[in-house]
């Protein structure tokens, strides 16, 4: 069984080529909206609003993210691991608070979207330490997106209700990420393919060895 992210990427180069294609499409969608509706997009250097959103990543993104973390210095990596412990503690508190909605997943998802937990990859200067390896969700946060049939947009954005704007289909992106994660797991022999639908927290990804992630 392959254990290291580098070994996996070398064993499945075409899978990561397809992943990078998905990333490029997300970046292109963002640039198009920014070009045509620049006054509505409030993403700027130093803005970290999206870095407090709670979301998960698929296995293909987890491996890519770990590759990015390998590129930073030891001190920066250790600091991120300490922040991951803090994030895990906060996530546990959020999960306990929202347990009352376990029988109503839609209400729970709505409530979860309002919670704020700082991403452990955000440094003290509010900069992402692996910016070029960030997940697709991070890349499209500042433009209108659609997920589970509902439109969403950054709370700081200036898109007006009642007006029509281009919408990035996160559901379609997630289907692609699931497919690539399943193919990666099967071909790299890193676990059971039925785990391809797992959505993993950033804090868990950077703290947990790859093989252990598959047992989540």
Shape: globular
Percentage of residues in strands? under 5%
| Uncertain segments | none
Kindly, what is the distance between the CA atoms of the first and last residues, rounded to a whole number of angstroms? Answer: 17 Å
Largest sheet: 3 strands, mixed
List the helices and strands and how they pair.
Blueprint: H1 5-11, H2 13-36, H3 59-69, H4 74-97, H5 105-114, H6 136-139, E1 145-147, E2 150-152, E3 168-169, H7 170-188, H8 202-207, H9 210-213
Parallel strand pairs: 1-3
Antiparallel strand pairs: 1-2
Helix pairs in contact: 1-3, 2-7
Describe this entry's structure for a reader.
This protein has 216 residues and is mainly alpha-helical. It has one domain. It contains 9 helices and 3 strands. A 3-stranded mixed beta sheet has the order 2-1-3. Helix 1 (5-11) packs across helix 3 and helix 2 runs antiparallel to helix 7 (170-188). It is globular, with a radius of gyration of 17 Å.
What is the compact description of this entry?
With 216 residues, the protein is mainly alpha-helical.
Keywords:
three-stranded mixed beta sheet; 50% helix; 216 residues; mainly alpha; single chain
